[in-house]
Structures are given as structure tokens and as C-alpha cells.
């Protein structure tokens, strides 16, 4: 049971790692002067309304937009066990063999009286007779 749960958690963690390592996105930031006005992920940043149109380019606009592109990995490298050197293969095999000893299950113990219910005690005879072991 524990081994199955650990296997599922490890599989989910590795699949999330692969997903997020290949995931790419953009972060847009809009500055008005030196102040950060808006930050947007996956969409376009909203302006502050002080942008100058391109026709009146004589004055410099105080606003600027920056775009940060965070690119994920394009190619994933797949290795097989045969791609490793012989020493590395021996180390992996010996490590896995010695580590597997910790996960051996114990033999199932049989409890013959697990379904037996004890009789109801109506009176505690030793207490009634004042018999105590000293």
C-alpha cells in the first residue's frame, strides 16, 4: 500500500517536472517613468493612458514596455540503461539491490483469536472479595 502511494507521488512529481521544464510563457511589464504600472502574464499589459501616438514623435514618451520571454526546453533527452558506462551500470544495479531490502514486506501474521469477543464482566470478583496480590 505504501509502496503504491510512493510510486504514484513520485510519478506525479516527475510528470510535473517535465511539464514545467518544457513550458514557456511571456511576462509583459508597463513602466510609466520609473514606476511599474502593470504586469501581465500570458496577456498584454494595460497602459497607463499616457502613451504618445506615433504621429507626434517629437516628444519622447515617458512610458515603456518590456517583454520577458521565459522559454522552456524544446528537446528532451532520453537515455537508456545501455547508454551508461559499465561502472555506472554496476553502481546503479548494486544501489537498487541494496536499497530494495528496506521495502521487503514481513510475512502476514495469523492471529487466531482476533474475532473472539471476551465475555462481559458483570462483577469484579477480586474487588468484591477484597483479594489483592501483594
Note the topology.
Layout: H1 2-21, E1 25-32, E2 35-41, E3 63-70, H2 86-100, H3 125-128
Antiparallel strand pairs: 1-2, 1-3
Low-pLDDT sequence parts: none
Structural class: alpha+beta
Radius of gyration from CA coordinates: 35 Å
What's the count of strands?
Answer: 3
Task: Count up the helices.
Answer: 3
How would you characterize the largest beta sheet?
A: 3 strands, antiparallel
Report the order of strands and helices: HEEEHH
Q: Largest beta sheet: what is the strand line-up? A: 2-1-3
How far apart are the termini? 48 Å
Description:
The structure is a single chain. The chain is α+β, with helices and mostly antiparallel strands and 134 residues long. Helices cover 29% and strands 17% of the residues. The relative contact order is 0.10.
Task: Give structural attributes.
29% helix, single chain, 134 residues, 3 strands, 3 helices, alpha+beta, three-stranded antiparallel sheet
Produce a short descriptive summary.
By secondary structure, the protein is α+β, with helices and mostly antiparallel strands. It is built from three helices and three strands. Strand 1 and strand 2 form a beta hairpin.
Amino acid at each position: 500500500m505504501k509502496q503504491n502511494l510512493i510510486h504514484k507521488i513520485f510519478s506525479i512529481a516527475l510528470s510535473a517536472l517535465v511539464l514545467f521544464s518544457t513550458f514557456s510563457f511571456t511576462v509583459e511589464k508597463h513602466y510609466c517613468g520609473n514606476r511599474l504600472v502593470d504586469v501581465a502574464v500570458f496577456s498584454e499589459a494595460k497602459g497607463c493612458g499616457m502613451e504618445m501616438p506615433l504621429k507626434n514623435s517629437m516628444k519622447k514618451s515617458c512610458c515603456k514596455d518590456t517583454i520577458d520571454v521565459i522559454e522552456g526546453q524544446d528537446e528532451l533527452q532520453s537515455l537508456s540503461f545501455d547508454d551508461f558506462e559499465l561502472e555506472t551500470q554496476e553502481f546503479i544495479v548494486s544501489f537498487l539491490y541494496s536499497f530494495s531490502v528496506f521495502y521487503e514486506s514481513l510475512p502476514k501474521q495469523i492471529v487466531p483469536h482476533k474475532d473472539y469477543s471476551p465475555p462481559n464482566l458483570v462483577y469484579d470478583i477480586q474487588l468484591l472479595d477484597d483479594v489483592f496480590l501483594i
